Give the backbone structure.
Amino acid sequence: MSGAPALEPTGAEERPSKGGIGPFLRMAAPPTLVALLIVLAWYGVTYFVLEPDRRFLLPPPHGVILQGFLDGGVLTEILGGLYQTALVAVYGLAIAFALGFSMALVMSQAKWIERSLYPWAVVSQTVPILALVPLLGFWFGFGLMSRVTVCVIISLFPIVINSLTGLQSVEPKLHDLLTLHDAGRWTRALKLQIPAALPHIFTGLRTSAGLSVIGAIVGDFFFGRGRPGIGILLDRYSRRLRSEELLAAVIVACLLGVAAFWIFGVIGRRSVGHWDPSWSDKRQKR
């Protein structure tokens, strides 16, 4: 009995991409188009919506570039503020991670500890930070310590909740396997729970990194003393109606938050992307 003829390979099968300009364009083209639309809308509002005597409220993009980024004195001032804000954000994020992960690790070991500490982690997220600013100023002064404290309060909760979720998400069968080997509580945590929680930990860090930048700017804006950061510059430019410099500082602040989010995204993909589907590069490129 004659069978159906075998299909010869045509070479048309889909092959994995080996790189090149194609993947880069697929990633860069959509946000670039959105940016162009934003710039066009910006020009439209400046020249067709605002009256000529009110255009100082929203100067055109080229004015922001000329006076905010190409002016050497202003650029030096903004970069100095960027450095101060980034420094405060890094300090705050590091302390928030140490506190948040420690709390999550302790809570994962016993339910009564979780019931004792978890409500206070929620309180740290729900208390309006602006209500605490005067108290923080009275307690710690109006310098670096108060600004870092604001960052810690704002960025603590995502680290706690994501780390705790990851530590408690280990399959019971794996716990049973370590029980058969008489593994202790902390051996179980170091060799099983913490590695399994890494994807959740990086998710919390990525979220808290952006929040820490916000906290640094908020603390800088309201304390307003010491070396000027982005927050002090925003207040200074708004009081003097220097719209171009104000928008340049806002753009730099946004870029700092995006950079913080992106850095921990890259670190997470490099660390756990090869075994966790939610962080893999393949999923990101779909």
Summary: The radius of gyration is 25 Å. DSSP finds eleven helices and no strands in the chain. The chain has one domain: 61-284.
